[in-house]
Design a protein that fits this description.
The complex is a heterodimer. By secondary structure, chain A is of the alpha/beta class. Chain A has ten helices and ten strands. In chain B, the strands form two sheets. In chain B, strands 6-7-8-3-9-10 form a six-stranded mixed β-sheet, with helices on both faces. A four-stranded antiparallel β-sheet of chain B has the order 2-1-4-5. Classes of the chains: A alpha/beta, B alpha/beta.
């Protein structure tokens, strides 16, 4: 089997709490409106779109933090669309997530070592300490960092801890949701290089959600462009940048301010 | 002559280290001056020093901030606040936290005009309507009665821009005004700030970490590292031939989708070492 994910006719709607009447159910907003795509094994799949396009919702459906309303998501051939929490538990180790804001996704009262070890214990791994050390090695942090608290680290280092926590479980698939958007350009570059290297060395499949097409171009082999809950383009990265088909992709590309005062930007 | 002139501005943490290291820069009327650097470099600190909104934990040790020739730091604090209130404005980063969620947006624009500039309320409201139309808000009347949560991020940022221009300030500090927005909205907002700034002839101090944005909107820029200006030049010269190795490294780290192999390169250790040595040398000379 060459694909790790197969998504067919995916619809997802959420309750709109801002319009909920005092009594009775909140009206539903349809966020994802029928998505079909596959993620090939070993791919780095970029998911782009503007705010509100549904990219994070799609990501959360892939790792089943949200349950789709219809359609299907197959992970390694298993239909996970409506699996219950108990049935998902053994699968959860295999698809991991790295969050956008490391300040709010790392517990400020736990040390880095404990943060990386917690999911390892939860999934019943042995040799936890050795695995934590190895994970830190992989993300290029000194082993001594295990004793530090998140606030003692820089933004880039914190994001490395988030990556270490995900890869420590030896997952097959990682979802990275806007993980470099809060970082300075230099740390951004370091984290992207690190992630690209890990995908290669550990044979991971990665879905990388971003609003930044420059970052996508650097890292991803394939790109899905979302617009208002629909896929408007799904192609190889090089082909997409050479000749964008959808008007929205063109618009996204044209809106990027390149570091060049001579770029026409109208 | 430049409208804002900062001379050898030295800011320290009270009883602690240097935050701004003898910063000097000039912004002319109608000019947009970019302040770039990584987080913690002191870009926002400069804007705050100008607007007199520095946190209590830091103090200005020496230097001058000249606003149209008047040294703000030599003034009586109350007079200084009046002058800044009448001539300067801020476009903040986060349009959600900058607006009070419990109040309608209309009064949040007009209150400043009424309370500080003593305008009659009717005049202030007419001015607000006019400005909301100028920032391309279709129904100013309706929007003024909205609460912030009823509006999108782009709309909120437009309101803050309208609010900043309301009292015809001579100088605006824009602190990462588009960082929270997505690229297509960012483009609209930047175009809007640019059009407003040109029409009103405002001097603009533009804080950003995005060199792409700088290349589109600024005429000059200062590159900061650890509170020290490492390069101050016009935009064209900067992007064609950056002088300082740190400027070159920052440019190489900037994402550029048209040239993926020559972008997103981390700032090399050697460059960090060079610029750190310069900072240490500056500290030694300052006797700090």
């Amino acid at each position: 089997m060459t694909e790790i994910y197969r998504v067919e006719g995916l619809h997802l709607s959420l309750a709109d709490m801002t319009r909920k009447p005092l009594l009775g159910a909140a009206p539903r907003i349809e966020i994802l409106k029928g998505l079909d795509f596959t993620i090939p094994r070993g791919a780095v799949m970029g998911i782009v779109g503007g705010s509100g396009s549904g990219k994070s919702t799609l990501g959360r459906a892939l790792v089943r933090l949200l349950e789709p309303s219809s359609g299907s998501i197959r992970f390694e051939g298993t239909d996970i669309t409506h699996l219950g929490e108990a049935a998902l538990r053994p699968l959860r180790r295999r698809f991991q997530m790295i969050f956008q804001d490391p300040m709010s996704s790392l517990n400020p009262r736990h040390r880095v070592g404990g943060i990386i070890a917690a999911p390892l214990r939860l999934h019943g791994f042995d040799d936890v300490a050795a695995r934590v050390d190895r994970a830190l090695d992989h993300v290029g942090l000194p082993r001594g960092f295990a004793a530090r608290y998140p606030h003692e680290l820089s933004g880039g280092q914190r994001q490395r801890v988030g990556i270490a926590r995900a890869i420590a479980l030896e997952p097959e698939f990682i979802l990275a949701d806007e993980i470099v958007s809060g970082l300075d350009v230099s740390s951004q570059a370091q984290v992207l290089n690190l992630l690209g290297g890990l995908v290669r060395d550990l044979g991971l499949t990665l879905a990388f959600i971003s609003h930044d097409l420059s970052v996508i171009r650097r890292l991803c082999s394939r790109v899905i462009v979302l617009y208002q809950g629909r896929i408007v383009e799904d192609r190889e990265t090089a082909a997409l940048f050479a000749d964008p088909q959808a008007a929205y992709t063109r618009e996204l590309l044209d809106a990027i301010p390149l570091p060049d005062p001579d770029q026409p930007w109208t | 002559m430049s409208y804002l002139s900062i001379r050898d501005l030295e800011v320290r943490l009270k009883g602690g280290g240097r935050l701004l290291r003898r910063v000097s820069l000039d912004v002319a009327r109608g000019e947009v001056h970019g302040l770039v650097g990584e987080s913690g470099a002191g870009k926002s600190m400069i804007g705050k020093a100008v607007l007199g909104t520095l946190p209590r934990s830091v103090e200005i040790v020496s230097g001058q901030i000249l606003l149209d020739g008047t040294d703000l730091l030599a003034m009586h604090p109350a007079a200084r606040r009046r002058l800044i209130g009448a001539t300067c404005a801020l476009i903040p980063q986060d349009p959600l936290t900058a607006l009070n969620p419990a109040h309608r947006v209309g009064p949040q624009i007009t209150d400043r005009l009424v309370d500080i500039l003593r305008w009659p309320r009717a005049k202030a409201e007419a001015r607000a309507r006019e400005l909301l139309a100028e920032v391309q808000i279709a129904e100013p009347e309706r929007v003024m009665r909205c609460y912030p949560h009823e509006l999108s991020g782009g709309m909120r940022q437009r309101i803050l821009i309208a609010s900043a221009f309301a009292a015809e300030p001579k100088l605006i500090v824009a602190d990462e005004p588009t960082t929270a927005l997505d690229v297509t909205v960012q483009k609209q907002i930047l175009k809007l700030i640019q059009a407003m700034q040109e029409r009103h002839g405002t001097a603009l101090l533009f804080v950003t970490h995005d060199l792409g944005v700088v290349s589109k909107i600024c005429q000059r820029l200062s590159v900061l590292y650890a509170g020290m200006v490492v390069e101050d030049t016009d935009v064209r010269t900067f992007f064609r031939a950056p002088q300082h190795p740190y400027s070159r490294a920052l440019l190489a780290a900037t994402p550029k989708y048209t040239d993926p192999t020559h972008s997103l390169t981390p700032v090399p250790e050697a460059v960090i070492a060079t610029v750190r040595a310069e900072v240490a040398e500056a500290d030694r000379r300052a006797g700090a």
